[in-house]
Amino acid sequence: LKIAVDAMGGDHAPRAVVEGMALAISDGGVPRENLLLVGQAAALAPLIDEVGLEGVAVEDASQSIGMDESPASAIRGKRDSSIVRGMRTVAEGRAQAFISAGNTGAVVAASALVLGRLAGVSRPGIAVPVPTHRGPCVVIDVGANIYCKPDHMLQYAVMASEYCKASFGRADPVVGLLNIGEEEGKGNPLIQQVHALLQGSGVTYRGFIEGQDIMSGVVDVVVCEGFVGNVILKVAEGFSESFLHDIFRKVAETTNGSPDVKAYMGSLKQRFDYAATGGAPLLGVEGSIIICHGRSHGGAIANAIQVATNFTRSRVNERIVDEVAKVSMLHRVADFFHIDQN
Amino acid sequence: LKIAVDAMGGDHAPRAVVEGMALAISDGGVPRENLLLVGQAAALAPLIDEVGLEGVAVEDASQSIGMDESPASAIRGKRDSSIVRGMRTVAEGRAQAFISAGNTGAVVAASALVLGRLAGVSRPGIAVPVPTHRGPCVVIDVGANIYCKPDHMLQYAVMASEYCKASFGRADPVVGLLNIGEEEGKGNPLIQQVHALLQGSGVTYRGFIEGQDIMSGVVDVVVCEGFVGNVILKVAEGFSESFLHDIFRKVAETTNGSPDVKAYMGSLKQRFDYAATGGAPLLGVEGSIIICHGRSHGGAIANAIQVATNFTRSRVNERIVDEVAKVSMLHRVADFFHIDQN
């Protein structure tokens, strides 16, 4: 199992990436021969020495894509960027997974161009496990696809259900469709169509859920449009930042550093630090592509290496292909009878 | 100034509403002759006695609309509901404002039917002041309109700017358009069109903002689609609930009820308790319509009475009509020259 990591992606690259790799080796027990650093070899050499990563293979990539570059043109123009080269190590079978904290749009675009989609999948989607007190709730899509059609969202439900089973051991993940109310008839036409598709789909569908249900843990998978998912994630992030930091400071002051409160606060902070969690799979592409937050530090990269390992070992992509095929078959049968009746 | 309040709306009605009115009188200094309770007079009588609201006028309404009823059919079918009758007190000039914690969709539908829109306004929008450390940030729309078109969203920017000036004393409110990135070219076609309209509109437009910016206070007004705004609000609510309650309990335990921490936590809780804040105006209708959270307790109702008073006294609706007219004029001029050039 070989995992390629984008050395040039993210606000704290390349240092955070190299440090994260070292952490995965020292604390995570990942064999160093399983790792492949993708970036400007000459520039990385001193950092590799400093962090003690000697012996980790480097895939030389002369270019890097900035966080604010337009994804499509960056991918076309920078064939020797760390993102495109990283994808190619997977396409060529020299690695099974690729991790990047870089330009998310560029990662999504490069995966489509270089790796292609899994058989039967219409649009890949980014699946983010959001922490709840009942374990992760997977929100899909959070921005890979901002032109979501009903069948894309049906497939998101199927793919995220398989991911939930494979990565979080849920036997029968429950799917909710994000809407502005739980009653039948609520929502826009897109939501209504997805609702109809999900009801006959074979996934365990609970129906509409609302924003507050994401954190409450009533469902294992939340399906939403990429635009909506992206905004939600950032609202939650903004909330935790502007707010928790306030509380933590105040509580630390007033409790004079009580170790009990400190430990509890630390665990909460970690649970809700979206930048630290690290590792959202891009579901529906040929390979294991793991997207990290742009602000990832070493810990998030190390975590993403673990996520990539589990994702690849679980062979979830094979399950996704099977289940997407079943759903399309159901779809075609339903269509057939529908046409027949008219 | 007369303020009508829906006695039958919300999860804790009618008790919470009647108690909220009493609170507005006792703590808020609102004269009782300024208040009008709308609901089933016979059923309300014992409660009015109990709470000590004798002398407050009651507008008898034999029906009430449930939280889960379909708005359009409820409004058509229940002409004697507290929501429809409340709107009529405003339409007939017997009250200037109407407050409801009931079925939001029904309030929006009834306002369109009974009151009508302000001159020049295409679609009313619900404007929610979200607490930030720099004061309220007004998010519009949060669900009055789920088929948002570019010119609706342009008008939301204009209306919410006027509301910000009139209610929060901002001299020059800064407007942000919610998107999935700050760079030009990001977002879907709707967002791109609104972006173009806002740039030439005369409102103080900062450009795209992202989800995390709502809480950070970098803008005074956030414009978004009703679907997106509704989801955001509920995510923030869910976050604060599932999470803050946890922290508060733990901190209270560990600090053995330190009064300093307790007071701080209490202030935070109040600041982020969306049910307690109470009072989001429906901008763009002929009158002052204030929508409360369905879970409102007495405090939220009392607060909404204050909001309704300020909203009506500020005569913001006159400013909205003027500014919407200016923007439409600009619009027509731009269109004219555009056509001329081709």
Tell me what the structure shows.
- The structure is a homodimer of 342-residue chains.
- With 342 residues, chain A is α/β, with parallel strands linked by helices.
- The first copy, chain A, is 51% helix and 14% strand.
- Chain A is built from 13 helices and 11 strands.
- In chain A, strands 3-2-1-4-11-10-5-6-9-7-8 form an 11-stranded mixed β-sheet, with helices on both faces.
- In chain A, helix 6 (150-168) packs across helix 7 (189-199).
- The model of chain A has no long low-confidence stretch (mean pLDDT 90).
- At the A-B interface, helix 8, helix 9 and helix 10 of A face helix 8, helix 9 and helix 10 of B.
Strand order of the largest sheet of chain A: 3-2-1-4-11-10-5-6-9-7-8
The helix/strand series of chain A, from N terminus to C terminus, equals EHEHEHHEHEEHEHEHEHHHEEHH
Low-confidence stretches of chain A: none
**In which range does the helix fraction of chain A lie?**
40-55%
Largest interface: chains, residues each = A-B, 51 and 51 residues
Distance between the termini of chain A: 53 Å
The largest sheet of chain A is: 11 strands, mixed
Mean pLDDT of chain A: 90
Radius of gyration of chain A: 21 Å
Portion of residues in beta strands of chain A equals 5-15%
Number of distinct beta strands of chain A? 11
Quaternary: homodimer
SS element count, helices of chain A: 13
Overall geometry of chain A comes to globular
Tell me the structural class of chain A. Answer: alpha/beta
